[in-house]
Design a protein that fits this description.
This protein is an alpha+beta fold. The chain contains 3 helices and 5 strands; from the N terminus they run E-H-E-H-E-E-E-H. A 3-stranded mixed sheet has the order 2-5-3. Strands 1-4 form a two-stranded antiparallel ribbon. The radius of gyration is 13 Å and the shape is globular. The model has no long low-confidence stretch (mean pLDDT 91).
Length: 89
């Protein structure tokens, strides 16, 4: 049985893990970039990339893993969101 891949960009790790579990998927690797220096940063960091990449209508088998990359650099999150939007045009 397949389930839809949720869009996670801009979410915190906690928000994303909740969405992942709600979709009957599993959190995979959690990768922090160089901007995340301590526990406080890790709590406020936002997702700027996910794998598999979100695509409307994309489905995975239930139980599949989703990897996430986090940063505290809001410009990085915003740039990644804009790149994807431009690709859709």
């Amino acid at each position: 049985v397949n389930t839809f891949v949720p869009p996670l960009k801009g979410m915190t790790r906690e928000e994303a893990e909740s969405k992942i579990v709600d979709a009957f998927l599993n959190p995979g690797a959690i990768i922090y970039d160089m901007t995340v220096e301590d526990e406080e940063d890790s709590l406020s960091a936002m997702i700027f990339r996910q794998s598999p990449v979100y695509s409307e209508g994309l489905k995975l088998p239930m139980g599949s893993f989703i990897d996430i990359w986090l940063t505290v650099d809001s410009l990085k999150v915003f740039e990644e969101l804009n790149i994807e939007e431009e690709d859709e045009i």
